[in-house]
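Archive maintenance. Older records in this collection stored only the sequence; we are now back-filling the structure field for every entry so that each record is complete. The fields below show one back-filled record exactly as it appears after the update. Entries are processed alphabetically, and Delta(3)-Delta(2)-enoyl-CoA isomerase is next in the queue.

ARCHIVE ENTRY
Title: Delta(3)-Delta(2)-enoyl-CoA isomerase
Organism field: Microthlaspi erraticum
Length field: 240
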Amino acid sequence: MCTLEKRGDLFFLTLTGDDEHKLHPDTIASILSLLEQAKSQSTRGSVLITTGHGKFFSNGFDLAWAQSSGSESGAINRMHQMVESFKPVVAALFDLPMPTIAALNGHAAASGLMFALSHDYVYMRKDRGVLYMSEVDLGLPIPDYFAVMFVAKIGTSIARRELLLSGKKIKGEEAVALGIVDSAAHDSAEGVVEATVSLGESLAAKKWKGEVYASIRKSLYPEVCGMLSLTALAKFSATP
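Back-filled structure field:
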């Protein structure tokens, strides 16, 4: 489902396999456990890079699993379970004491896109891969903390309209133009990862205090952190 590897200052969280990396409860639990592991092993200069294998970064919640419950009420309960269990993953990324970078190897849809946007930086491929919020097409509401995140992370109403209200599949160059991702100048999954490694190494060289970095990040997004029950406080120290 996913792995965590540490190379020097860089942690690599990888969604494994060649499928859609759907966010089943087991996958969500695995991601959360690995984020907690990265946090426990973090030092000054640590950076997290998240990527995946295959065509998809993540195609969102496992709707097939929800629908396999055998009843409408069961499917609704399973959807609610995934929405609630994913919330701590977003909180863990906001609370992680290091810069975070999403390297989108392919498509990022619905909660898979939410997962990407929970990182500080998002890099995307130029040659393939789209961003897609499928909820409007599927007739599903946006969870409350998703909505607050999109307002916080996507700066214009036009960009939010294009992503959330049109059902449009947005490719790399347009995603950069709309201010949704930071970069889409990469012709392969390997190229995206190489670019994020370069960024990660430059950030790691700063040797910032992780607790302070996380505190500043949280202070930038008070509405999101309020929804996630996170505080932005950091303890002052005489050590710079």
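Update note: Strands lie at 2-7, 10-15, 47-52, 56-58, 100-104, 107-109, 121-125, 131-132, 183-186. The mean pLDDT is 95.
Entry marked complete.
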